[in-house]
Design brief:
213 residues; alpha+beta; Glutaredoxin; Glutathione S-transferase Yfyf (Class Pi), Chain A, domain 2; 4 strands; 60% helix
């Protein structure tokens, strides 16, 4: 299996972590930002990360890829089968991808992607406003949503946790970490999920990249 993209994309990072938690052998091939092999463009006709290839099967979008991974290797089960639990897992993925993702788009893009990868100034005012206005609401919700078990659904690792942790890594890279004093549960939760083996190597490599900048 091949995932095309870059781990600085929260969607690529999420997909790789999901595959690792499933015990799948997944290779990362660099792609995106206008680059990548022909197979990436075939898998992702609009150039969005991640793209995916398994044999002659090509597809894009992290949710589509994760759904495929879950179907071909049902164990360990990471998308709950109980109707209510499944709905909650999908909700948390939506919260991560769309709601937190919108904040990531303003903060991480303008502070990191634009100046570092596109060679132009980002809209720092938009990033600062998102951190001041949007970010607190996101962590306020997460602080109240985390059960005592430390897992969002069924008291075990699921897609919900894998999806939610990923965009918060981007926010930390962009100078917008969760404040452990004001939101201790949320900060500890994200740190614990990102410390899992499925994420730890990815996050360590990203930290080295930013430390070298």
């Amino acid at each position: 299996m091949i995932v095309y993209g870059n781990t600085l994309s929260p969607f690529v990072r999420k997909t790789l972590a999901f595959g690792a938690e499933k015990g799948l052998d997944v290779e990362l091939v660099a792609a995106g930002m206008g680059g990548g092999p022909p197979e990436f463009k075939q898998a992702s006709p609009f150039g969005k990360m991640p793209g995916f290839k398994d044999g002659d099967f090509l597809i894009s979008d992290s949710t589509a890829i994760i759904t495929y991974m879950e179907a071909i290797k049902p164990d360990p089960n990471l998308i709950p089968t109980d109707p209510r639990s499944r709905a909650r897992a999908i909700w948390f993925e939506e919260y991560a991808d769309t709601i937190v993702g919108a904040c990531v788009g303003k903060i991480f893009f303008n502070r990191v992607v634009a100046p570092r990868f596109l060679g132009r100034d980002g809209d720092l005012a938009a990033a600062d406003e998102a951190q001041a206005v949007e970010f607190p609401k996101l962590v306020d919700y997460l602080e109240t949503a985390i059960p005592a078990s430390g897992f969002l659904v069924e008291d075990r690792i699921t897609l919900a946790d894998i999806a939610v942790a990923s965009p918060f890594a981007n926010l930390t890279h962009a100078g917008c970490p969760i404040d452990a004093k004001s939101h201790p549960k949320a900060a500890a939760y994200v740190a614990a999920i990102l410390a899992r083996p499925s994420y730890a190597t990815i996050i360590a490599a990203e930290k080295k990249l930013f430390a070298a900048a």
